[in-house]
Design goal:
52% helix; single chain; alpha/beta; Rossmann fold; disordered C terminus; 201 residues; 5 strands
Amino acid sequence: MRIGLTGGIGSGKSTVAGFLREAGAAIVDTDAISRGLTLAGGAAMPAIAQEFGADFVSPDGALDRERMRALAFSDAAAKRRLEAILHPLITAEALTQADAARAALVVFDVPLLVESGRWRARVSRVLVVDCSAETQMQRVLQRPGWTRERVEGALAAQTTRKARRAAADAVLLNDGIALDTLRNEVMSLAARWGCETIATP
């Protein structure tokens, strides 16, 4: 079975992905794929350099992430241009990894699954990790380099909690619960959705 995993920034999606991996699922991390594509020598870099210019390429040949992030948050057209380069490459690599996986459950970790509109047809179920905007803000502000303004920009760039929940086959509410409780919920869900090897509590 192929599952789409998504959630807003700071929702705890990466934590849930880790528990699913512990349960025996194969995780296809689209953020990790994106980072690989934009490292020095990455497959996306020639097109990015041509589209956006040398100012967006770091001295070592990788994407200047901070400069690109600032542009994408302030310029919707630039964000679409970047996505037009990255998304086909990300999708192709994600599907290649999924086809090579030997697990009974394959999880596509896609932060913008709902926003993209393309992933729903590729997965059997959508799992949303959800929490309040206040909790998201508190969690992300603990990350190095994140300011309140930057978090607000990231939240504004993502779809609403209501839209994510409406697209979900299952929702994990990760707000005010213990980590062990969240883990148990993930393990139970993984068992229902076909993981062959469930880690013992």
